[in-house]
Amino acid sequence: MVARLGLFELLEGPARVTVVSAPPGSGKTVLLRSWISRAGLAERAGWVAAGPDERDPRRFWLSVLGALRGTTPGSALVQALTAAPDLDGWAIVERLLKDLAALREPVWLVVDDVHELGPDQVLRQLELLVLRAPPELRFVLATRRDVRLGLHRLRLEGELAEIRAADLRFSLAEARELFAAAGVRLPEAAVVMLHERTEGWAAGLRLAALSLATHPDPERFAAGFSGSERTVAEYLLAEVLDRQSEQVRRLLLRTSILERVNGELADLLTGDDGGERVLQDLERANAFVVSLDAARSWFRYHQMFADLLALELRRTAPGELTALHRAAAGWFAGHGYPVEAIRHAQAARNWGLAARLLADHWPGLHLDGQDAAVHELLAGFPVEARAADAELAAVIAADELAYGSLEAAERHLSLAEHTTASVPCPRHGQAQLLLGIVRLLVARQRGNLPSAAEEARRLQAMADAPDPTQPDLSEDLRALALVSLGTTEVWTARFEDAQRHLEQGAALARRIGRPYLEFTSLAQQSNVEIYRSFALAAERTREAVELARRHGWTDEPAFGIACMMLGAVLAWQGKLDEAEPWVQRAERMLRAEAEPAAGLGVRYVRGLVELARGRDTDALAAFRAAERLAGRLSAPHYLVGRTRALLLHALVRLGETECAEQALAELDERDRDGGEIRIAAAALRLAQDRPHTATVALAPVLDSSAPGVHRAWLAHAFLLEAIARDALGDPGAAESALERALDLAEPNGSLTPFLLNPAPGLLERHARHRTTHAALIAEIQSLLGGTRSRPPPTGPRPPPEPLSESELRVLRYLPTNLTAPEIAGELSVSRNTVKTHMRNLYAKLGAHRRAEAVARGRDLGLLAPRR
User: E strand or H helix at 586, and its extent?
Assistant: First the structure.
């Protein structure tokens, strides 16, 4: 038994009548019996099972009378009756009302399987008893479907409590308790899987527990458990499907190919009329049919029931499957549901139709943020279909940008461009549109501003002369061109142009109802705003995060950009613990293989966090990884100079001054003259005890002749100037420089420069001599005290999130020489699934390459040590 305390409380509530209405196997009877036992009501509760034998009114009422006489209070009040020819249900009800008029103690009458009561007059008689009984007599009515008892008046008066299927579904914790009580030990992932597949259905969980108790491989059984499992199928056949009429069975079986169904679709697939009424009746009857909308026009089947129906359809009419899927594909395509249309075309193995539908609808799906759905649809095409279609090759190229690599995207784009001659003339315009969008996306992610500008111009031209045979996407293309161009301009430090294009793109996206483009634009705007104000950048990221959460886009790369920028703001403000979860999210979301510019950015932020924490070795690794990614970009990334500068800082802090000197010497003259590199060079000179040379390096930064230095970096420069002047014995100049550093740091709360080059003595002296910036200095001192008092990390840090079972299985194959496709074959999963697991475990382990992940796994004891 699993004690369901929340439901017990409902049963013990003040309502005089409680209705428990749910499908078979929901645990109604077990719930009521366990409640009676737990509440100690055995002497006060009369139980009547209204089975098929109770359809005779007189027999049913004699059972009710006997049940009430079996209670302690009822035994003294209810008089015995003997069956007589003239004794009917109405007379027994009147007799019960008369006998119970003197009832002063609570008594419960529990009627199980009320739906089995036969003639309508029995229900009318029960309704009369409910309405006229004394308040001490309480009723609990269990039924598989709602029956007409006229209880609406009690609902209005607050005297009716209802326990429905949703209330009876087992929670995950209850499912876990059920398996434990049955002696079944399962990994958490398997329990979650069974709970999701059964949707908390009590009978499904119980049948699974019974089978698992004797199965030699419980985890494998759990992975394959469904409604077609023998014990579940037998139960559902006997209790649900075999009880339906032939017309209803036909509807259920032929519509079982659908994830959701409405009346029009049901009529199309069955060739009958009245499908909506049948579906509504089934839902009302708790026959494992669930309505999906308030109007009760769309429905779905319980997963376990859907599995059974699909099995029965394959068994009884396998030859009809293709035609049913083809008809469903046509209906969904004609009613504006492209994803479902493509799935059914694939199920019908009509690859040409599926490819045309996907090519036609991909621009709209991409603009709505449905790249994940496209990825799943592409996985449904066989290799030969993917290779033979130019339009499909263009869509695959776009998919590689989201889930593969930039190089693979460029290969598929080249293939599509070289095979466009095979595209039929009526579809030539659509093919050019696909190619134009993908070229723009490739240029954006490669950071190729000239190409992005050219492709944006072409898209604008297409928008100005739309193809009349295709959906009008003119405004959508303009918005996409603006956002993509602005994004490319961000990475290439064209901030004013980027701001203008991104704002225009967001405004247009908002006007035409494309929230995904608005979300993408907001995420990228934070990249620009961080150079004006940390507060504005944080505001843009939070707007983007809120939009993503509202629409379910938290797995999209643009969400990773927003997380990265919020992490960067918090890191510069010295709020390292707050920054950490945002940086981790960004690391999981942003894949350097597909987006090297974003990958560079997130490694830069990771390095900044580690540097501020004093984990200089980890910071150095992050900056080196970022620098490697810069080589994959078409134009210099605006963070390259800053990455190299912080890399030099990390070397200096590690005492590797010779390496830092060599790295500085290897830069060309133009790079060495950059403001951030000059600041890093000054830190190196101070470490070499050459304060005068440090001031020489800083001079062009301080007099603004070195352009484009962010306020936080400028604050860092003045801090180093203060340290150098103090070392040169010029306390006045040191104090002035420190005052300027604090002036620059305070508006944005930029505290990290004071962590990278601590100067506690200067700050203490400044606080004694001046009253300005007192709160800021106190905050810096507090932060420095916390940083100094924290012991350096020893041993490997545990991953921020535990690895899932699937990720652990993939990790165990990484020390081998198997490629990702070969690992996928060993695990019987898709190559993309393995790549997703690898990406996630890299992020969780803080690794950037396979060898690093293996080493980290060994450090943590997840893998055996190297022999």
Answer: helix 576-589
Looking at every residue in the chain, the average pLDDT score rounds to 88
Could you tell me whether strands 160-163 and 261-262 are parallel, antiparallel, or unpaired per DSSP bridges? unpaired
- Tokens coding 246: 């032939």
**CA separation for the pair 864, 867 (Å, rounded):** 9
If one counts every other C-beta atom within 10 angstroms of the C-beta of residue 208, the result is 29
- pTM exceeds 0.85, yes or no: no
Contacts 24+ apart (CB under 8 A), 689-693: 689/727, 691/723, 691/724, 691/725, 691/727, 691/728, 692/724, 692/728
Which run of H or of E encompasses 596? Answer: helix 596-613
Reduced to 3 states (helix: H, G, I; strand: E, B; else coil), residue 699 is: helix
pLDDT at residue 147 above 90? no
Q: Pull the structure tokens for residue 297.
A: 């026009």
CA distances (Å), 463 to each of 477, 478, 606, in order?
6, 7, 40
> SS3 of 526, please?
helix
CA–CA separation, 828 and 824 (whole Å): 6
pLDDT digits (tens, 9 = 90+) for 67-114: 999 999 999 998 888 766 667 888 888 889 999 999 999 999 999 999
Strands in 261-262's sheet, in edge-to-edge order, are 261-262, 298-301, 289-291
User: What gap in Å lies between CA 224 and CA 703, rounded to an integer?
Assistant: 70
For residues 516-532, average pLDDT = 91
Q: Count Cα neighbours of 499 within 13 Å in the Cβ-side half-sphere.
A: 12
Helix-strand-coil split of the chain, %, nearest 5: 70, 5, 25
